[in-house]
Amino acid sequence: MIAAVYVKTLVIDGVNVSARADQTVLEVARENNIDIPTLCHLDGLSDVGACRLCLVEIKNSPKLNPACVLKVEEGMEVTTNSTRLQHYRKTILELLFAERNHVCAVCVVNNHCELQSMAKSQGLTNVRLPYRNPAYEVDASHERFVSDPNRCILCTRCVRVCDEVEGAHVWDVMGRGIGSVLIADLHQPWGDSSCTRCGKCVQVCPTGALTDKSKLGSDHPK
Question: What is the pTM of this model?
Answer without folding.
Answer: 0.93
